[in-house]
Amino acid sequence: MHERRILGTELLWAFGVGVLIAATLSMIVFTALTGDINPPSNVERLDPKTLHLSGEFAEQNLGTTVGADGSVTVRAIATQFMFVPHCIAVPRGRPVTLRFATPDVIHGLLITGTNVNTMVVPGFVAQVHTEFYRTGDLLMPCHEYCGLGHSEMWSTVQVLPDDQFKPGQDGRVSCAQR
Amino acid sequence: MVPDQPPAADAPSEVADQVDERALAEAMRVVPLGAGVLAGLAVALLVIGYLLIYLLVFLPRGTVG
Predict the structure, then answer these.
(1) Mean pLDDT throughout A129-154?
(2) CA dihedral defined by B7, B11, B13, B17, rounded to 10 degrees?
(3) B-chain residues within 8 Å CB-CB of A31?
(4) How many domains does chain A divide into?
(5) Is A54 part of a structural domain of the chain?
(6) Range of A134's domain?
(7) Which of A115, A148, A170, A178 is most buried by a 10 A CB count?
(8) Which helix (H) or strand (E) holds A33?
(9) Same-domain pairing of A65 and A116
């Protein structure tokens, strides 16, 4: 009799846990499909030894660029112990593609107050699609220990309203001087 | 001076306990229910905490992918 009751309790508990797991997974899938919230995943290789010499991560291509179709792309390098450029300008309320690469060791970054959070691994391009809702300066620190200067490695993401986010003739946008 | 205790090996293998069988049955009826309530409460608090963070912190931070 006791064993039957114990078995019944265990089955009831297993059912409850199963319902919780199913509800959690459903919620994650639902927000992924309707809210476009997914873990960033991008497998794109590049040579870390030569990325600074030519191509999209050469120094003159770093920073924020507005394409002919209006798409906003940010390219930055994470290196011991700084992000280049040190300040990144992005528009409020528009889709932004962030692309990062590193020539040395594994770094990581997050942008405070947003869901942007990724690793930057040598040999790969870390890409994150996002949108910023509030204007202001957001801190972007390195969150993967990368050496003795790790704690000094941070950058600023400046979210600008539309009237201040003005690309130049070359389609590039820099941080506003304040 | 404390008198020498007999070694444990010399103790009888079974000692009649003084447990009231009815009290034992009553305790066994209630204790599993309490354990279930305690475990349920712990899991409920965990799930509520997860939901609060997910709905009030994670989702308002916007799209990412």
Answers:
(1) 96
(2) -130
(3) 59
(4) 2
(5) no
(6) 59-173
(7) A115
(8) helix A2-35
(9) yes
